């Protein structure tokens, strides 16, 4: 087990290195720079700026300096926001994205599983159709439309929540709902289909024959086996959701990390592009690793490689 | 297995608690709202949206409109623009030398937010700081009018040589490179703001966050700055003209979405939506106009197409004329941009030359365009329009630019039979191509930095001047602009600039399309907000009725 984790960590480092390298060169290959604007800077000022940020040095120097400072967890100053470092941006933005992400993850998992279970238990009855119509809507409506819809109905028409901003708990509800809609629907469908499969198994019939109550069968025997696919899905989902969504953050004016992820590219804010990419990659890679480990623990049929010798 | 299930149920429990808590929040919120409405006294608190995090709130480093929208409230220069004219602000009086090159300002008794007096040294310090090459100011060139400003910024002169000097605490002497007839306008600009030199010398990071070291000298002081989220300003009791200031608080949110901004306004979460701080969604403009809510104000900005005058067939002036005359500008502003923009048949906006609302030629003059096309083809030795070299029209990727380009492509095809290819690129890629001359026809616009026609005309003074891009140069035009700087009589100077513009509109290295406007909605009882012709916003005189 330890050996397996160690090996996975090593390959994570390698992937991270490849990601950093690819990002660095792709970003430099794109035309334009952080100082190009509608009003062209006098050449002397541009020269000064390039010197200050080290952009005038040969690419290999810049590249190795980047690697060294990333290893030290120092991503350098932002080009676009004078006086703020990339570390500042991550330290301020990530907690916000994380909070919002946790909230929508909670919503997505709990409501999604609930809907899925209800649908499966009432297979081909109105509850099933209702839940699945809801799920299809959740999957097929894009998040920006869902967000505008929520704003219009719950904020403007009903006045229950504020339209946007990030101030109190009340402000977090609409963006969390908008962000949760798609994964919630996905989880509901996932749970339903695996529940149906599990419910048709022999051991469920045995349990029924033994005279166990319906609730006991569902909770004790069916749900826990039906949740395996959901756990698989949770890894990449949480990585994506915790680092923030550009669309949702933009529409609701949330100071999270997601907007930096996208805007830094159009701003050619080199240091922010690198910093945020590295940060996101680390979270994604660790989430995937975590899910693999948890999966092996939950389902004894799956053996982690390296656990046994001689095969 | 049991553990996992109990975890799941505890998650559900937490969620239900959370939802219940939200319900509670909500009830509290709505009763608050109702209570607020009953108390009749009007709160003098303004909520606006500034869209994004400002680049920097150090006046010497700022180079963008977001920073400007904050700095004009918190700082004050020697003058302040009101009703399009510079009023004395930090300066109490001034004298100009006969050669128009030396200004001596007497400062009024004013204080920084922390109680320190505002001195002439603060101005000298701030201007030299911005010009100092080691401080990386991208707007240092705004100070190049000051003698040796450019030389110091390029490392060719010393700080002592720069033509700004505090003679004593209250007297500031400024020597200019050339006579600059619009200098009193210029010094209202934020790069010319003072900085509290006592603090800045002690703490070079004073401007990075709100706090005791962030001092300013304007009508409002910054009390909090949550990066990427919001800025809160409060009335500055130490301001010399504090009696005029009625607003007690300004909250500036950073929401970078036009639709959300309008929704927030409709829901009573903002008192102002739209320009110059934010923007309204284009689709909403006709409806808002119909409801009579839309405010429209022309600003000093021109949207134009640049011709690369070194690429065939655009090196031929008659072809350029044909293309320029065959555009139906009225149709574009009415059907595409919808913000009551003014069709532009001139380069300088009507906020500077009011007669330019008519312009130098007729809009959509297809007859003349055809004549010029015929002449141009003859000069190029071509028999038919089809023999013209291929033309590509470039623009940066954006919905509105794309629609305008498609409309103009259609007009040229219908009116002149000229086929044009469209090409779009992401902003940074596009600007790179344009500045390096790798284009034929390119979309661009210009927003005035200061309220003088020279700001638009000098773009095309030098072929290799940073923002020309058209490779066009004309000796007569150039001479007129140079001479205008030395002309003391404003009427004569204006005529020289008009003559220059006539040359520009005859040679047409650019095809003007429309003059920009600012569009916004505001609370009905909000009064006294000053939006200048340059599109700057000032809340100094604002109040709620």
TrEMBL record, chain A:
Per UniProt, residues of the ABC transmembrane type-1 domain are 94-295
SUPFAM superfamilies assigned:
MetI-like (SSF161098)
Localization annotation? Cell membrane
* Record-linked InterPro entries: BPD_transp_1_N (IPR045621), MetI-like (IPR000515), MetI-like_sf (IPR035906)
Record key words, sorted: Cell membrane, Membrane, Transmembrane, Transmembrane helix, Transport
Q: Which CDD domains match?
A: TM_PBP2
Output the superkingdom of the source species: Bacteria
Note the topology in the membrane: Multi-pass membrane protein
Q: Which GO cellular component terms are attached?
A: plasma membrane
A GO BP term here is: transmembrane transport
Q: Mainly localized where?
A: membrane
Kindly list the residue ranges recorded as spanning the membrane.
98-121, 133-153, 173-191, 230-252, 272-298
Q: Which family does it belong to?
A: Belongs to the binding-protein-dependent transport system permease family.
The name this protein goes by in its record: Oligopeptide transport system permease protein
Q: Which organism is it from?
A: Anoxybacteroides tepidamans
From TrEMBL, chain B:
Q: Which GO terms describe its cellular component?
A: ATP-binding cassette (ABC) transporter complex; outer membrane-bounded periplasmic space
Localized where?
A: Cell envelope
Which N-terminal residues, if any, form the signal peptide?
Answer: 1-20
Question: Which residue intervals define the domain Solute-binding protein family in the entry?
Answer: 88-467
What Gene Ontology terms for biological process does this UniProt record contain? peptide transport
- Keyword flag Protein transport: yes
Give any GO molecular function from the UniProt entry.
Answer: peptide transmembrane transporter activity
Q: Which domain of life is it from?
A: Bacteria
Report the CDD domains cross-referenced here.
PBP2_OppA
Ordered alphabetically, the record's keywords are: Peptide transport, Protein transport, Signal, Transport
The main place the protein resides is other
UniProt KW Cell division keyword:
no
**Classification via PANTHER family:** DIPEPTIDE-BINDING PROTEIN DPPE, PERIPLASMIC BINDING COMPONENT OF ABC TRANSPORTER
Please state which protein family the record places this protein in: Belongs to the bacterial solute-binding protein 5 family.
Q: What is this protein called?
A: Oligopeptide transport system substrate-binding protein
For this protein's source organism, the top of the classification is: Bacteria, Bacillati, Bacillota, Bacilli, Bacillales
